[in-house]
Amino acid sequence: MGWGTRNGGGGNIINTFHPDDDSENIFIESDYVPSLADIIKRATEKWPGIQFDEIDISAEYTHTDCLGYDKYDPSDYTNYIRITRRI
Fold first, then answer.
1. Which among 52, 62, 63, 68 has the fewest CB atoms less than 10 Å away?
2. Total-model pTM
3. Is position 31 within any domain?
4. 6-53, pLDDT tens digit by residue?
5. DSSP string of 63-87, one letter each residue
6. What domain range includes position 75?
7. For residues 57 and 83, is the Cβ–Cβ distance under 8 A?
């Protein structure tokens, strides 16, 4: 999804960001908590033939909404599971 905007009401435009999958990474929004089997399936669909020891799995807390505002608001952040292929 990448960079975007949304209407914040009152004519305010709010900047947003959601990471996109790329050639080396898969991002899963963690509102959905996948099983390890689901993670491995997603990795092998994206990178056929990959072995489990060739990927890293990490958690990321990413600022995705109301970018540019100074005050911390936890609802402006999204938890992701990141699957990274090691080269």
1. 68
2. 0.82
3. yes
4. 887 777 888 999 999 999 999 999 887 889 999 999 999 999 999 999
5. E-SSTT-SS--GGGEEEEEEEEE--
6. 21-85
7. yes
